[in-house]
Structures are given as C-alpha cells and as structure tokens.
Amino acid sequence: MDVSTLVDELESDRQTELSRLGSSKALYADTGGQLDPDRVLGALADETHHVAATLRTWAGETDPAGVFADGAARLDGQHDTLADELADDEPGEMPALVDALADADGPVARLGALVGWVLVVDRKASQVTGFFTGQADPGTASLIRDFGEDYDAIREGALAALSDRSDDGARETAQSAAGHVIQAAYDDYVETLESMGINPKPVC
C-alpha cells in the first residue's frame, strides 16, 4: 500500500476537526473546565493509560511488525512519567476517542486507527506543553514535549506496517478507521463544550 500521502490526506480532509482538537478549548473540555496542573496532566495520563491497554490487547492477537507492543511500551513509559508528577494516578474513565480506537477490527483498521489517534494526541499534547509554558513550568513543558518523539515513532511504525499490506481496499480501510477515531474525538469535544454552555467553534 502506498502510504506516502495518507497523513496529508487525513489532515486535509479533517482540517477543521484537527484544528479545533488542537485548541485551548479542547484542553478545557478534557479537564472539565478545571485548568489546573493536576487536571491537565491527569487527562493526558488517563488517555495514555487506556490507549496502552488497548495496544497490549491487540499485541496479544495480531501485531504487524510489533507496532502495537512497541506502542504500548512507549505509552507505558509516558504514563509512568505522568504518574510520578501526580498525587493520584488512578486512571479515570476511558475517553471517547479510545473507545473508537478499541472498536477497530483487524490489523489494517487497527493500524489506521492508531495513525488517527496520533494525529489527535500530538495536537493535544502541544496544548499541554503550552499550558505549562504559560504556568512558568518549563520542566514539565519539556517533559510533555519529549512525548512527541514517541508519537512520531508510533505513527511511523504504523505507516510502515501499512505499507507492507497489499489487501484489496486496505488503504480505504485504514483511512476510514483513522477518520472514525478523529470524528469520535471531535464529537466528544463538541458535546462536552456544549454541555458546559460553550460554543465549540472558534470565535474570531
């Protein structure tokens, strides 16, 4: 499968959703409107925990090129780092986009869904980095910024595994699964903000 333009097409097709998921409003939604350091780190820790658990489950079934096991190990390391920063590291509820990720069935859909998740979480993590920069906490900002290397590795591993697939319709399956994850994250963002009486669209 030719994956050279897969990410570009996803970013183009889902430009609005990804832009808003990478905004400060998304961070506000993820923390339930409580923008304090523990809530910000806790939201990222919860997502990281549940995605790692999902990838471990997948790795126990079919794991193309060890992508899922490697991703789980990387995210476990991130969660350990986040837990060290938190007084209470008990995982919360599974976020909607992780539910959507876990819905993916079959290795091609799972690899595509993982690419979609990385496109979302990379933008969310950038907001977390910006939050701690604004809090005059460069150490924590740098810690979260370093997670980007893991996200890049997970995305590239998934794309490399997809490039080895020659299944009929594999590209469409992967792209659809990625889009499903992005849409689930966006729908949750919209519903959460609207329930708080906040317009989810940017106000210019």
Describe this structure in words.
There is one protein chain. The model has no long low-confidence stretch (mean pLDDT 93). The protein has a domain at 1-33 and 122-197. It is globular. It is 75% helix and 0% strand. The chain has 204 residues and is mainly α. It is built from nine helices and no strands.
The portion of residues forming beta strands comes to under 5%
List how many beta strands DSSP finds: 0
What is the terminal separation in angstroms?
41 Å
* C-alpha geometry: globular
Major β-sheet annotation: none
**Global Rg:** 16 Å
Overall mean pLDDT stands at 93
Q: Secondary-structure element sequence?
A: HHHHHHHHH
Instruction: Give helix % range.
Output: over 70%
The secondary structure category is mainly alpha
Contiguous uncertain segments of 5+ residues:
none
Query: How large is the count of helical segments?
Result: 9
Quick take:
The chain is mostly helical. It has helices spanning 6-13, 15-21, 24-30, 37-59, 67-85, 96-103, 107-134, 138-163, 170-195.
